[in-house]
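In this section we walk through a basic example: taking a raw amino acid sequence and producing a predicted 3D structure, encoded as discrete structure tokens. The instruction is simple. Fold the sequence below.
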Amino acid sequence: MALRIGVIGCGNISDTYLRNGPLLRDIDYVACADLRPEAAAAKAAEFGLEALDIPALLAREDIDAVLNLTIPAAHAAVSLQALEAGKHVWSEKPLALSLADAQAVLDLAEAKGLRVGAAPDTFLGPALQEARAQIDAGAIGEVVTGLATVLSLGMEDWHPNPGFFYLEGGGPVLDMGPYYIAALVNLLGPVASVQASGRIGRRARLVTAEGPMQGQTIPVETFTTLNALLSFASGAEITLLASWDVPHADLRPIELHGTGGTLRISDPNDFGGVIARAAPGGEFAETDTGSRPFGSNNRLWLGEYPFSCYRSLGLAEMARSIGAGVPHRCSGEFARHVLEVMLAIETAAAERRAIDIASRPERPAPFSPAEAASLLAERLPEDA
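The resulting token sequence is shown next.
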């Protein structure tokens, strides 16, 4: 039986989850709620859900889990409410904005015998799973160093309400960093220590995106450029460049260098993509994962902009794992480690010192194409 899901938070990202729902077995979106009743009503009408207020949604006995799509500052509070109501929780990233809040969520889930999962789930996609398979098979030997980059001019040119991205708890690492750090931890294991530097590029941002804030100037309270060195327990030393102050860039999202070669990895914000490997002195050989389950481009995100966006996959994998009584891959413990690394980057940049990372989660089990395919619905929407 599919896990029945109630959505709390009907903002920009909810369209992606709800449009992907019919692609997947094991989950069924049934209701939605938002602090703005009109937002919940609009989403309910568009996707055939029941619009409720938050207390009513949490009180419903026929809702098994909550998809928490609130703003980052509300993630922990909403997740705790859902757990208290006896619901499993899937949270958008980050899991919380402090380690204490994240641990409170995990502790309550354990006490209640419930599951917590968290985005990003992109590392379940075929591109990062192919990269994982090649690394595990020793295709580039022991990973020694590498570079990960997430560089742009920021959020105000496309997001209708970008103010929170530039407040405490925002910035390029806490917003986009989860995709990159989760990908790296899945590939290389846990991070052991962090060093970083950072700055604020501009103290104010002009919103140019269409929406209620167009033409407004918003203040910047957090680093908009962060350069970090991630030292992994495996011995790998990876540099992460994260900035919303870059007009143009031509760097690859992730490139890893090992004792036996180099691996180029596609954008970890996508599920599919092309992986390329080269032996020392050799040419790059590409592996295109677009034909694998969840690897093809779709048009379910940002209108007509096509890429492989299958958010909800991790929630479906968690639902399947609950039914089977096995650990799920996008676990709360994994998300807590990613959060610890991100907060350490911010602290290391502010205090100009190295920070040790205490948590050591196990790498999630590999996710095979056959397992991925088993989560696909028998009939897919035409735009999938």
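Looking at the output, two observations stand out. The radius of gyration is 20 Å. The longest strand covers residues 143-151. In the next section we compare this with other chains.
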